[in-house]
Amino acid sequence: MMTITVPTAPTVSRPALGRTGTAAALLLPIALINAIGFILPVLNLLRMSFNEALAGGGVRETFTLANWTGLFGDSFYVELIINSITVSLSITIATLIVSYPIALYLHRSTGRWRTFLTVLVISPLLTSAVVRTYGWIALLADQGPIVSAIAALGIAPPRLMFNTTGVIIGLTEILMPYMILSLLAGFGRLDPRVEEAAMSLGAPPAKTFWRVILPLTLPGIALGCLLCFVLAVSSFITPKLLGGGRIFLLATEIYDQAIVTLNWPLAATLSMLVLIIFGAALAAYARVLRAIE
Amino acid sequence: MEDTNTSAPMKLLVAILFLFLLAPVILVVPLSFSGEQILSFPPESWSLRWYAALADNPKMISAFWTSLTLGVIVTAISLAVAIPAAYVIVRMRTLGSTFLYNLFTAPLLLPTIVLGLAILIIFASVGFLGTFTGIVIGHLVITLPYALRVIATTLGNLNLACEEAASTLGGRPLTVFHRVTLPMMAPGIVAATALCFLVSFDEVVITLFLTGPRLTTLPVELFHHVESRADPLVASVSVLLILLTLAVVMIVDRTIGLSKTFVK
After folding, report:
1. Beta strands in B158-222 (DSSP E)
2. What are the chain B neighbours of A147 within 8 Å (beta carbons)?
3. Structure confidence at residue A5 as a pLDDT band (50, 70, 90)
4. Is B132 on the interface with A (CB under 8 A)?
5. Where is the chain membrane-spanning (chain A) (predicted)?
6. Cα A211–A213–A218 angle (5° rounding)?
7. CB-based contact A212:A192 (threshold 8 Å)
């Protein structure tokens, strides 16, 4: 993901609070919460993926690879993993296509108009994913406005909800703000004068786009795609609600195994798999970035 | 100013895409005034019945108060814990400042579905599931990194000269912090407060793992409601939630300016 840099300030010449003891005391609360709410649970989760699940929700402490081999030996799970990845990739591409024009337009606008549009882009982020998914349920329902409009055109009305199509439409919209903001962050190198130069030298708009604008915005595209893919693979609320329990993806399966089936070792193994996919996406991103440079 | 170089078809495309982006949020407003028994759009009749139904729904109302209390407590603890931590990490530059900063903001890199499961398994063994304490700790895991990040950034951008002048003039370290550093950090603290509250108030995935039959938050209650039936009740709650978010954002805007907080 993005590189993290500690905001720096030069050391106070006379350290305001002096001794290391004070520093340790001030760091203790955050360290404690970090340890019991993050480090310990995550290490325990990794350990849990090597435990044996007993019938009825029990767990036996042992060291077995059975959860891992079982995952790849079961066609249901192999399909679930492949499905999760392909659905997430489709969502990423769809999000890129619908976000790019908005980002480009935002990049070109200035002043209050730009601020206003930026607030419009960010405002959905401040609205709960449950609320936005609920909005999509109303829009995509069988008797809903979109299906009715398609039917009015004389086309056989498609099912847009409780299937993969619905999940892709809903998640695409939900991830758009992240994509737009990532694209904008990467558009810094896009100078309008470069476009003007290409146009004034006789390049048609389409050619200007493919040969000048697109190459310059590739870093932003790579960042936005990484972020959206990672968020899509791990999203839970939208697939669960818009999929109506009929769409099986990694995140929904983790929840079902943890809460309904009570198979914690399997849920832990699936969680680790999500983290491995994250790692792979990050590695792919690093390679793409190097290729662009 | 509006860009004049953009062609008309491009403007139309951008307008349609904006409509797509905002459609589900805008839609809940008319939906909440539906007079229908079930979720349908556009509604055939209009009424306030779903607001009345909300007022008669003790489960939603108690979930709302739980979320509100939770948000306030989580925000208060986040600030009390993150301000000293940010001060030590940015100003005192103790051994391994960078490492500590990365460690304390690392929970944001994990998907909430994984974090929620991890916390569920640990909390189940100590009896924290379905308790208020358990949910507070669960929320702190993700609000603290935000608070630390915002406050550390503010602190890093502050001019050291004022603090040094106060020290030189004989101010005791605590007095300098209280009278000089803290007031200068105010914009960052307001931003962190709003962010922590909104994150806690909206959190749903981690909370889903930690709530019990007797204790539930508003987003979790909404999730279960949408999962089990489709009626316009959620729309009326959503409108009130959007108004609450707007209120928080307006307060931030009045205090320090929205563009300084969220748009950088």
Report:
1. none
2. none
3. low
4. no
5. 21-43, 80-103, 115-137, 167-188, 209-237, 264-286
6. 95
7. no
Q: Which residues pair with B46 in a beta bridge?
A: B34
Residue ranges of the domains in chain B? 62-261
Q: How many CB atoms lie within 10 A of CB B210?
A: 27
Give the closest-approach CA distance of B128 to chain A in angstroms: 12
% of residues, chain A, pLDDT over 90: 52
- The secondary element (H helix, E strand) that includes residue A276 is helix A264-292
> Do the chains contact at A1 and B109, CB–CB below 8 Å?
yes
Q: What's the pLDDT at B99?
A: 92
Contact A173 B176 (CB under 8 A): no
CATH architecture of A73-292: Orthogonal Bundle (1.10)
Q: Give the torsion sign (CA, B83, B89, B94, B98).
A: positive
**CATH architecture of the domain with residue range B62-261:** Orthogonal Bundle (1.10)
Rounded CA-CA distance B130/B117 in Å is 14
Q: Profile chain B (264 residues) by mean pLDDT over runs of 10 residues.
A: 67 95 92 85 85 90 95 97 92 80 93 96 91 96 96 87 85 84 88 93 95 90 90 91 86 68 46
**Total CB pairs under 8 A between chain A and B:** 290
Contact across the interface for B167 and A20, Cβ inside 8 Å:
no
Residue A230 predicted with pLDDT over 60: yes
Residues of A in contact with B148 (CB under 8 A): 30
Contact B113, A236 (CB under 8 A): yes
Q: Is B68 exposed, middle or buried (0-12, 13-18, 19+ CB in 10 A)?
A: middle
- Please tell me which of the candidates B89, B104, B259 has its beta carbon nearest to residue A34: B104
Q: Where are the domains of chain A?
A: 73-292
- Give me Rg for the CA atoms of chain B: 22
The amino acid at residue A179 is M
> Using CA atoms, how far apart are residues B148 and A8, in angstroms rounded to an integer?
14
